[in-house]
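Q: Here's a chain of 620 amino acids. Please give me its 3D structure as tokens.
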Amino acid sequence: MSSNLKNKIEATDTSINALLKDQKYYIDYFQREYRWQEKHIKLLVEDLTTTFLKSYDPTDKRSSIANYQNYYLGPFVFSVNPIDGKKSIIDGQQRITSITLLLIYLNHLQKDSDEKVSISELIFSEKYGEKSFNMTDELREPCLKALFEKGIYKLKDDDDETVVNMLGRYEDINQSFPEELTQDALPYFIDWFVENVVIVEITAYSNENAYTIFETMNDRGLNLTPSEMLKGYVLSKIDDAKKRVEINDIWKNEIQKLHSHGKTADQSFFQAWFRGKYAVSIRPGKAGSENQDYELIGSQFHSWFKDNHKKLFNLHTPDEFYDYFKYQFPFYAKWYMKIRNAQTEYDKDMPHLHYINFWGIAESLQDPILLSSINIGDEDESIHKKLDYTARYIETFTVRRAINYKKFGQTSIKYTMFNIIKLIRENEVDHLVINLTNEINKIDQQWDAIISFGLHGQNRKFIKHLLSRISGYLDEVTGKSSDYVSYHHPKGKQFEIEHIWGNKFNEHKDEFDQENDFHSWRNSIGALILLPNGTNQSFSSDKYEDKIDHYLKENTYAQTLHSRFYEKNPNFLKSELIEELNFKAHLEFKKQDVEDRKKLVQRICEQLWSTDYFNSKTLE
């Protein structure tokens, strides 16, 4: 290798189209894991779609997209072997993986469209009939191939962290991608995504140079964060030196605690706090509209605060700044961290915070709504109720949309949720209950959609949440110690979705002429339960009569299929709540039994998510 080539470094602005078309990238063994979480992919989808919608006008020709606003995705660092030309990804593997998953999803969305954009060559290239994906890693290929060809992939026991995360993030994309972009706007968005998303491609011709670039970008940044710039401005407004030192110490202490939840948790906190308690405007969904409070807080909350602290915060004098950041800042930071903790670890005083951690909305909406419900001076007991009630509203909203096959990505619901934020600010508990009850009663999507709801390729995560909530609820009502956590994410053996019918069409030809019709009924919510991993695999293909005795050993919801459960547990039907649900045993499991079980699920959901919860908790 010549020393000139070895020392060469190239940096070029490029597009996703130019980055991926007919390219192959190798992932070094030490960085193969794909570790993006739900919040990362949802934020990317939110940023991309929001930026696109700022420019999109349905009357535009597609050629107009060249003049749409660009989106900067950041630098990608590659090392090129000058002998064989192989490109290794040094920095950017997480983003390339995420881009690939989004491209696969978009390719499926447009499969029935008359106006397709050619993007398959950005996902893979084909030679001698063999598909080869843009990232060369044999462990990813089965999952990528299944997602590309069918849109679904069934996890295997030996699948590693990367494959599990890839499948999870693909499902997250499906859940969060806005409905308004799935029809006429879709080809415009795909064109924009592959051509207007800007990437800086940095290429080195030696690993040494590539890693030097990587370390320089990641270890030597001295730019002030928005939190630090906000602190500088606040301290400049306090003229008493002693008070300034005091606020500086409080600030450092709170930021340190926030950083225990992640290195950017301080920025997320300020965005949630300012949006939840002070934002009064949001950008209209029209092309060319200017950003308002909500968007400005998200992109530059320090500048927004400087422009609005007099009007919205009523902060004018040094003493007002001092008092505000001495008392308000620590109060809201403390409860923001308590919210985070309750989302991660189940808290019986605020259970719904835990539920929405697994089935909620984007953090950029969810956190402001939660903080908007509490006020400095509230007693802890009141705050627990407020946060739990507000989280219950969020879960009710998302569950009812999900069973109606409606998405709830940020762009789809942000106006609804922003209005909720403004509605519940400064509410006392009783007033909050009235407002949330009214808002729940206004939700368009109704529980009767359960009758036609079932498992499909991209909603397994929600089905697991729904069945865990149902199973945990029935156990709790009947006095068992198990709950949602016991089924959704127990510390020991995990639970899996069990089809009550085995995947054997031939055994059901007495009721079905078409195999597709059989599969639709087999995947119905009325024909699904949860069983421990292993038990599920052992009996999943058996006939109902052969495995119903095994169900008698499982959770309450599974046990209610068996007639002996009612004989052994006479008190089960004596519970007033259980009596309302009208359970019955199923000696066989035919179409009518599935239909009956679907109606049971609807009754359970109506009871489980009843607004009576607010009043019963308030009276405690």
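Q: Can you summarize the key feature?
A: Residues 318-344 form the longest helix (27 residues).
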